[in-house]
Amino acid sequence: MEDALAYLLDLRLRCRGNPEATALVDRCLALLARAETADAAELQQLEAEIEALRGELAERFGHPQTLTRH
């Protein structure tokens, strides 16, 4: 989880000046923060939110060639 946090924080710095990109990174950071203390029920909710985000990104940018899950 620490690697994912470091990656997202670095990405957030690189996205400065792009409010839309920053909002996406912030959304991911919020999901990561919630996952750290989530119980089983909330983990299922987070999985649903992650799938929704994945769908939104795929619709907007196309499906990724490879998928890395942090």
The rounded distance between the terminal residues' Cα atoms is 7 Å
Q: Which whole number gives the mean pLDDT?
A: 91
Tell me the number of strands.
Answer: 0
What summary fits the major beta sheet? none
**What count of structural domains?**
1
What is the number of helices?
3
How much of the sequence lies in strands comes to under 5%
Rg, nearest Å: 13 Å
Form type: globular
Fraction in helix: over 70%
Instruction: Provide the low-confidence segments as ranges.
Output: none
Q: What is the SS-derived class?
A: mainly alpha
Q: Output the helix-strand order.
A: HHH
How would you concisely characterize the structure shown here?
Helix content is 76%, strand content 0%. By secondary structure, the chain is mainly α.
Report on the architecture of this protein.
By secondary structure, the protein is mostly helical. The chain has one domain. The protein has helices at residues 2-14, 19-36, 40-61. Helix 1 runs antiparallel to helix 2. The chain is globular, with a radius of gyration of 13 Å.
Features:
70 residues, mainly alpha, 3 helices, globular
Topology:
Blueprint: H1 2-14, H2 19-36, H3 40-61
Helix pairs in contact: 1-2
